[in-house]
Amino acid sequence: MIVFDSAARLWLLTTPSSSYALRLDENDAPRHVHWGARLTLEQALGISEEYHGDHDPGGEELAVEGGLRFAAPSLTVRYGDGTRGVEWRYLGHTIDGEELRIDLADRSRELRITLHYRVFGDCDVIERRATVRAGEPVEILRFDSAAWTLPHLRDYRVSHVTGEWGREFQLRRIDVPVGETVFTSRLGITGHHANPWLMVDAGQATEEHGDVWSAALAWSGSWRITLRRDPLGRASWTGGFGHEGLTWRLGPDEELATPVFAGLYASDGFGGTSRAWHSYIASHVLPAPDAVRPVIFNSWEATEFDISQDQQMELAELAARLGTELFVMDDAWFGARTSDAAGLGDWWPNPDRFPEGLGPLITKVRGLGMKFGLWVEPEAVNPDSDLYRAHPDWVLHQPGRSRTTSRNQLVLNMARPDVAEWTHAWLDRLLAEHDIAFLKWDMNRPFSEAGWPGHPDPERLWIDYVRNVHAILDRLRADHPDLLIEGCAGGGGRADLGMLRHVEQLWTSDNTDAAERVAIQYGFGQIYPARAMGAWVTDSPNTVTARCTPLRYRFHVAMSGALGIGGDLRRWTEDEMVWAKGLVEQYKRIRPIVHGGAQYRLSPPEAGTTAVQYVSADASETVVFLFQPSSLPRGKAPIRLTALDPAARYRDEATGAIHHGAVLLSHGLPPLLTFDTTSELVHLRRLA
Ligand code: GLA
Q1: Other CB atoms within 10 A of residue 407 CB
Q2: Average predicted confidence (pLDDT) for the chain
Q3: How many other β-carbons are positioned within 10 Å of the β-carbon of residue 25?
């Protein structure tokens, strides 16, 4: 899958349906040659000879400073004498199965740089990262994981998501301007307003056709992707962790390794691109991809901060009646946490609310046949807490500066080994002493005054913090192998490939209004798979938007991800309970198809009717969701299905109706009735 031509000093990486080639130029700089359709070595060598020379050396694999380079660098270094930049010297390479390492150094300074590439036999994603090792003291001012260069295209268009709290993952497609466009988070967390991935096409790709180049970063802190289109009509991007203005000092023999920045070329449009990311995440990112994502009940929206043992037990009884598999007690179970103003950091059961600890509730939940889960927010602290009173120096802060609170809380400096160790210890103890199968790990604010007084290189915290959070999650998983974890940050504020290496699923948004959720889920699903998309059915009217939606609609929207229930079941009518129970049963039947199948977006939210189809791995079953928020007639077209066998017949599992594959492919399912917030779920099974 990886070959090297020593005469041309060119490497060719081959994936099932794409190729990637790079070479060293006469100055040993690693240069991009090709990223796209499959090529033979001979063909790749042809590009290298005919297209790249002095007039156009090709983009750099890791853009550095120095010489006549003026674009945004991937790597910026500064030595003690003020010298900057890199002059490349090739040292050698190793090919180890699916991995390529190219070792380079600076010609005159003691700095080694290694570029890492990894390909897979079962998908077209290429993982790239880099490491630097210092032989002399050096300041690293910028260190991206990789730069990716696109071929010359007639035009360039970028797809990405923007958002805010309650409105994450809003998909946008815009022309790439000549210049540099920066997608970034400086929050210390991945952020609600942007997400570290992009897709670029020539402006002509559609859902199922056309060339799309994309990349996603495996990092859960501040990040930056700089997309550059030059006036000559070329485009490239560089991306990685951290944000501008931060310095990492490396001493002799110290190494800095970037996270993975994975890239993908696909020729089957945005849908093909998303499916390739979904299967890469399932096969190579998620720690337990096949673990069944249980139907969750979460008490947050039902109770917020006003909780008690009896009330949680009552909710658990009702949740069990619906077929819930895991009961999660959210915030407010610990310390003096009766509002968001106090108690965060004091991780023992609130003695007024749980006088005998968590034991009785857990026993009750287990007795009802459900597993038990708990909300935690280990990275933050209320100033009004015993933890903060004992350790005011444990938070991110700078001497003489304000300690800016957000949601009445400060951020614990998880980069500090003692803080990370303490955090791991209380979580480990909690899990060891209780029958807890699930943690919802929340993080409800960005960094501010991000200092580390007394540390000689305080800005390291931006990296070490995230690494330590990932490491704690890993340790907990290793020591508690059946534990499932949900990542959350005030909704979808920390969703990325970095988190997905350590958790089963992500909480998508605090906005649980099903009508709003359709677009949020549509954007989330561009990269991340349905099995990792936490989705709850809550009450109507919705607590965030006050919109009223039918129970069935709310269920259908949540059933297209990892279903949870988050409403106040004490207020649901008997009819609603019966309906809900039936829908949970139906969900359990379709769950393997939604979570393990391939996802096809048949129609986007702006079309009026959003339609999403999931096809099981063996193509014998398919599930189609249709959501129509408004009765306006633009939503009245029939929805044509895809990925079916035209010669086969399919039975509707609910009605028993038989459909011909050819008809479903050419004419589709009949249009929805014209009511506001109408939805449909169709489960078809191929007849033998
Ligand atoms: C965040 C989460 C919510 C809930 C609250 C609890 O906002 O996103 O789901 O857990 O915290 O305080």
Answers
A1: 13
A2: 96
A3: 17
**Ligand 1 atom index nearest CA of 440:** 10
* Phi, psi dihedral angles at 319 (to 5 degrees): -60, -40
Nearest CA to ligand 1 atom 7: 490
Mean pLDDT computed over 405-414: 98
Q: Catalytic: which of 106, 442, 513, 539?
A: 442
CA 566 to CA 555: how far, in whole Å?
11
Give catalytic status of residue 510 as yes or no.
Answer: yes
Ligand 1, atom 11: nearest CA belongs to which residue? 490
Catalytic pick from 106, 346, 510, 513?
Answer: 510
Residues with CB under 6 A from ligand 1: 300, 330-331, 375, 442, 444, 488, 490-491, 507, 510
Identify whether 393 is a catalytic site residue: no
Centroid of ligand 1 to alpha carbon of 490 (angstroms): 5
pLDDT tens readout for residues 52-63: 766 677 799 999
* Predicted pLDDT of residue 282: 98
Q: Kindly report the pTM of this predicted structure.
A: 0.97
Cα dihedral sign, 239-242-243-247: negative
Contact 353, 360 (CB under 8 A): no
Q: Ligand 1 centroid to 10 CA: how many Å? A: 51
CA distances to 343, 415, 501 from 421, in Å: 20, 10, 21
Confidence class of residue 634 from pLDDT cuts 50, 70 and 90?
low
CA angle 306, 311, 313 (to 5 degrees): 140
In this prediction, residue 337 carries a pLDDT of 98
Helix (H, G, I), strand (E, B) or coil at 383: coil
Cα 451 to Cα 139, 247, 379, 459: the distances in Å are 18, 13, 15, 7
Rg of the chain over all Cα atoms, to the nearest angstrom: 26
